[in-house]
Amino acid sequence: SVLHQHYSPLEIILVDNASTDASGEIVRKEFPQVHIIHNQTNMGFAHGCNQGFQKASGTYVLFLNTDAWLGGNFFQPLVQHFEKEPTLAAIAPKLLNAKDPTKLDSCGSFWSITTWLYHVGYLKNASDTTYTKPRYFFALKGAVLFVRREYMERVHGFDDSFWCYYEDTDICHRFWLAGLSCMYDPTATAYHIGGASAAHMHNALLHFHNFKNQLQSFIKNFS
Q1: What pairs with residue 108 in β-bridges?
Q2: Cα–Cα dist 56/64, whole Å
Q3: Average per-residue pLDDT in the chain?
C-alpha cells in the first residue's frame, strides 16, 4: 500500500524486530528499495519506531504497523495540513476497521474522568458525519501516526522504556505540553486489523506493560 502511493519523494524503512518467519528476507528480495533494520532481539515497539525515525531523512515521518495499510492518495492531503498549521505535531488519518471497513477503528482519544482513555468513534459507523471533519484530540493511535520530524526530535521521540503500549498516548501528551497539537484528519484513510502482534504474547505481559507505562507516563508528564 505504501509503494502504491504517488507522493514523491518517499523513503521506506522496515524495522525487523527479530522476526522468526523470514519476513525480513522476503521484503529484501521482493522490495529491494526498502531499507531494512534487523534487530537481533525484539527491542519493543517504541524502540523500533525510534530506530526507524533516526534513519529517516524526511521532514515528515509516518509510523505504520505491520497489521495496517494505507488507502489511496494518503500523503498529499496530510502534508498540506502540516504546512497550513505550523504548530501541528502529529496527524492520524481516518483509521478503518480492516475486518469491517464500514466501521472506524478510532479517530483519537480523550481522557475520561478515571484517566482511562475514551477512544472516540471506536467501531462506530465510519460514514457518520461526526467523523468527516478534522478535529483535535489529546492522543492519537500509533498504528498509523504521521509526525513532523522537527517536533518529534524536540520531545525526544518515543519513550524507549515503554516496550509496548501507551507510547503513542505518552508522546501526544508531550506534544501538547510543548505547546504543539495533535489532529485527526479524515481526508486520508488507512486500515488496521488491531492486536495482530499482541495475539502471540502472554496476556499477563500485555497488562503489565499497559499499566506500568500508563503510571510511568503520569509520573513523568504530570511532574
Answers
A1: 120
A2: 13
A3: 93
In the beta sheet, which residues pair with residue 139?
109
CA distance 85 to 88: 6
pLDDT at 83 over 90: yes
Residue 54 neighbours by CB distance under 10 Å:
11
Query: CA nearest 151: which of 183, 124, 118?
Result: 183
Q: What are phi and psi of 84, to 5 degrees?
A: -80, -30
What values do phi and psi take at 128, rounded to 5?
-60, 135
Q: Are 155 and 75 in contact (CB under 8 A)?
A: no
pLDDT, tens only, 155-165: 999 999 998 88
Q: Report how far residue 16's alpha carbon sits from residue 167's, in angstroms, rounded to the nearest whole number.
A: 19
Q: Determine the Cα–Cα distance for residues 193 and 115; give it in Å rounded to an integer.
A: 26
> What's the pTM value of the predicted model, to 2 decimals?
0.92
C-alpha cell at 140: 492519537
Cβ(75)–Cβ(9) under 8 Å?
no
DSSP 8-state code for residue 59: S
C-alpha to C-alpha distances, 92 to 117, 142, 210, nearest whole angstrom: 16, 8, 21
